[in-house]
């Protein structure tokens, strides 16, 4: 009888939280990693409005969009460095975007590639002015 009374007092004192017989099990799996030298070389990528890669793309005006709407722009990226890029990802970063991003294959020096950037406005986005930056990530 006294044990039930103590349990009841514990529940009252600590706001109804009771942890009885809690046990935490932890599993650790050993492993190794080898950090290799970062490839040396000149990596450089530029964006252009046109296929011959003569007009630099320096900014994008997405214009006015409504909540739930999407737009895409196509442009060209050119490897102006001296090393091959093995993977290219194009995505738009914006506080009102809810998804997006495209992955592309490798790009050798002096090669260009047509890419697409999509901006999807969240259906719950509030009216206002927002930034929408195109982010291009490459690996070598």
Report on this structure.
- With about 140 residues, this protein is mainly beta.
- The chain has a domain at about 45-125 and about 130-140: Immunoglobulin-like.
- The protein is built from one helix and six strands; from the N terminus they run αββββββ.
- The chain has one helix spanning about 1-15, and strands at about 45-50, 70-80, 85-95, 100-105, 110-120, 135-140.
- Strands 1-2-5 form a three-stranded antiparallel sheet, with no helix packed on it. The protein has a three-stranded antiparallel sheet with strand order 4-3-6, with no helix packed on it.
- A hairpin with an 8-residue loop joins strand 3 and strand 4 (about 100-105).
- It is flat and about 65 Å long.
What key phrases describe this protein's structure?
Immunoglobulin-like, 3-stranded antiparallel sheet, 1 helix, mainly beta, 6 strands, single chain, 29% strand
